[in-house]
């Protein structure tokens, strides 16, 4: 019934298309509807015009709600029309209400199981939600229904293969196959041709974008801002320009202006990943961790399978002191596992949080072991795991781990330093000295090795002058090393130079306010002790 009426109104359809202005066409349609308010065809046409106007980047106002209203009025007359359900789904898709769009596309398929366009849009919806397997299936259904006019569906599958975390020769071949088929079917896919035409239309902005890029490269930032602002007055719906302006403002340190531009891009496209990512970065640079958390949570809502967002959110939560919440997001990132090397780093970070913040060495060791399975030659894993075993007082396990690490990298100064600390903790002073000396041999600038060896000479062997020389070298290579200043203060105090010791303790106190290496009360007690005796 609906298609027959559509055919009968062809003449009016052509009449609308002849209007030079969308606004005049809308006004004409509104007048006709005033005379015939129950005409479903007119409501559909008015909805189409509103949708077209909404998508026009040369206007700023949003007309998507008006389009939805008109389609819904038409649906009252044609409740079984697959085409109207599809149009409402498209409107909600452009409104970025993806779940509602999916609902209407499903209704369109229910009314017409051969609706290839609806299957394709379902694939697009699931792509936006990062449900890639579902997107693949729906794109394949669209191809099956219309194999010779399915360029967009093939191209979507090509992109889905491209972003897959699993890489293999087979996947690569399937990706190339989909791209080839998208090219071969392009001439027969009218909607794909329209999409290509739209992309080509954006080339009109290319000279302006290149000019702006050159201005920025030549430090003509203010001129670039003026250029982009002028372009936005002509095309207020061009989302890319808002993101570019935000990037420029961010580079200028005008963070509040950058935030406004990114938010404008999000208002126009509530699923704009680039704008959200930039917004997250700005909030992090400002130290506005609460806003950064909100932005990352929105990104995760849009793309729940993007491991990077879970990891970044976990980092911010950890900085906020919310370790338990951070652990949950680190675990999510590891589960998503985009690639072994990256996931191994996240597993090590999770282990560190368990070890340092939660004091849960068993969980830390488990996380480090997971990282080892992913990247068994990563030296940092052995260092971290050995440290966790040491904290758990499982010294033999720690020793085994460090020795295994030395098999991979026998000249690693950090491993020798950790071995020195392990032997010292076990009371084996000679072995500890040997390892610290090897650490210094392989890295003559390693401040920690100098300091730890100095502590042995001072506290275990009573060789004060040797200790002083080692602490001075530690400070030479790391002037901000509070513990080394503190230990040097202890050494010179033993030699009777209380004034110099007090100066060193005060330096240690000042540095410790930043580095938090020591209990401040311990330093205070040492200063007071100098003058009490």
Automatic annotation (TrEMBL):
Domain of life per record: Bacteria
Gene Ontology process terms (BP)? receptor-mediated virion attachment to host cell
Tell me which PROSITE patterns the record gives: TPR, TPR_REGION
Which key words are in the record?
Answer: Repeat, TPR repeat
Its GO CC terms? cell outer membrane
Under Pfam families, the record lists:
TPR_11, TPR_16, TPR_17
Ranges in coiled-coil conformation: none
Each TPR repeat occupies one of these ranges, namely 82-115, 116-149, 239-272, 273-306, 307-340, 379-412, 413-446
The protein depicted here goes by the name Tetratricopeptide repeat protein
Native source organism of the sequence? Candidatus Limenecus avicola
């Amino acid at each position: 019934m609906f298609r027959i009426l559509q055919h009968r109104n062809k003449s009016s359809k052509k009449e609308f298309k002849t209007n030079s202005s969308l606004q005049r066409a809308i006004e004409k349609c509104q007048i006709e509807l005033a005379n015939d308010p129950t005409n479903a065809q007119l409501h559909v046409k008015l909805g189409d015009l509103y949708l077209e106007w909404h998508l026009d980047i040369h206007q700023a106002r949003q007309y998507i709600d008006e389009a939805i209203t008109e389609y819904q009025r038409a649906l009252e007359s044609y409740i079984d029309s697959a085409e109207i359900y599809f149009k409402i789904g498209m409107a909600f898709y452009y409104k970025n209400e993806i779940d509602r769009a999916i609902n209407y596309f499903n209704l369109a398929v229910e009314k017409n199981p051969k609706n290839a366009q609806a299957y394709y849009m379902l694939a697009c919806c699931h792509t936006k939600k990062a449900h890639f397997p579902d997107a693949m299936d729906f794109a394949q259904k669209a191809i099956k229904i219309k194999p010779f006019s399915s360029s967009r569906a093939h191209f979507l599958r090509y992109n889905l293969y491209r972003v897959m975390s699993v890489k293999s020769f087979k996947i690569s071949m399937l990706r190339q196959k989909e791209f080839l088929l998208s090219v071969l079917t392009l001439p027969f896919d009218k909607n794909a041709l329209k999409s290509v035409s739209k992309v080509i239309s954006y080339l009109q902005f290319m000279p302006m974008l290149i000019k702006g890029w050159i201005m920025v490269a030549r430090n003509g930032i203010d001129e670039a801002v003026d250029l982009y602002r002028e372009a936005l007055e002509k095309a207020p719906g061009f989302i890319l320009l808002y993101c570019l302006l935000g990037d420029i403002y961010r580079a200028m340190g005008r963070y509040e202006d950058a935030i406004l531009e990114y938010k404008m891009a999000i208002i126009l496209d509530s699923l704009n990943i680039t704008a959200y990512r930039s917004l997250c970065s700005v909030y992090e640079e400002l130290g506005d961790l609460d806003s950064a958390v909100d932005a990352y949570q929105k990104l995760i809502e849009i793309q729940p399978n993007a491991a990077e967002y879970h990891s970044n959110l976990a980092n911010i939560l950890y900085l906020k002191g919310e370790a338990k919440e951070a652990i949950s997001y680190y675990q999510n990132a590891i589960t998503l596992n985009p690639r072994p090397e990256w996931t191994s780093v996240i597993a090590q970070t999770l282990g560190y949080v368990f070890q340092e913040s939660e004091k849960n060495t068993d969980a830390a060791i488990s996380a480090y072991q997971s990282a080892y399975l992913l990247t068994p030659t990563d030296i940092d894993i052995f260092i971290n795991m050995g440290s966790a075993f040491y904290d758990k007082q499982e010294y033999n396990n720690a020793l085994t781990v460090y020795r295994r690490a030395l098999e991979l990298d026998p000249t690693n100064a950090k491993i020798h330093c950790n071995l020195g600390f392990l032997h010292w903790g076990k009371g084996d002073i000679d072995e500890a000295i040997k390892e610290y000396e090897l650490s210094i041999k392989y890295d003559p600038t390693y401040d920690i090795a100098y300091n730890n060896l100095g502590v042995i000479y001072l506290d275990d062997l009573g060789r004060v002058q040797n200790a002083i020389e080692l602490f001075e070298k530690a400070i030479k290579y790391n002037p901000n090393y509070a513990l080394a200043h503190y230990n040097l203060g202890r050494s010179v105090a033993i030699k009777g130079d209380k004034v110099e010791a007090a100066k060193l303790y005060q330096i240690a106190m000042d540095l410790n306010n930043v580095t938090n290496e020591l209990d401040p009360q311990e330093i205070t007690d040492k200063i007071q002790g100098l003058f009490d005796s």
